[in-house]
Amino acid sequence: MARRHIPQRTCVGCRQVQAKREMIRIVRTPEGRVEIDPTGKKSGRGAYLHPRRSCWERALKDGRLEYALRIEALREEDRMALVAYASTLPEDEA
User: Fold this and answer.
1) Which domain holds residue 71?
2) Per residue in 59-84, pLDDT tens?
3) Does 1 map to a domain?
C-alpha cells in the first residue's frame, strides 16, 4: 500500500521544514488583517510558524512575517495580538 502524502511547510521564524499539521498558520485576510488561523482554512495569504516562542519572536522582530505575508508592516493591533499569543507558547520543545 502506498504511503499517504504529508504536506510540508517551512517555518518563517527558523526556516525548518515540518508537517503542516504541526505548525500554526498566520493569515493575511483579503481585508488586510493579520490573524492566527487555527483551522488552516481561512482565505488569504498564509505563513507558518512552529508552536515555539523563539520562532514567533524571530519572525516578528526581523520582519520575516511581513515579508512572507507580502505586507509593508503589521498594524499595531495585529502585532499586539500575535505577541500576546506568542507569550502563551512554550520557549522550546524538550
Assistant:
1) 8-86
2) 999 999 999 999 999 999 999 999 99
3) no
Q: Tell whether 91 is covered by a domain.
A: no
Residue showing cell 503542516: 20
18 occurs within a structural domain: yes
**Which cell numbers in the block locate residue 78?**
495585529
Question: Tens digit of pLDDT for each residue in 11-41?
Answer: 999 999 999 999 999 999 999 999 999 999 9
The dihedrals phi and psi of 86, each to the nearest 5 degrees, come to: -65, -30
Q: What is the CATH number of the domain that holds 75?
A: 3.30.1230.10
Tell me the three cell numbers of residue 10: 517551512
Reported pTM: 0.91
Domain annotation covers residue 2: no
Q: Is the dihedral of CA 60, 14, 26, 53 positive or negative?
A: negative
Q: Which residue has the cell 508537517?
A: 19
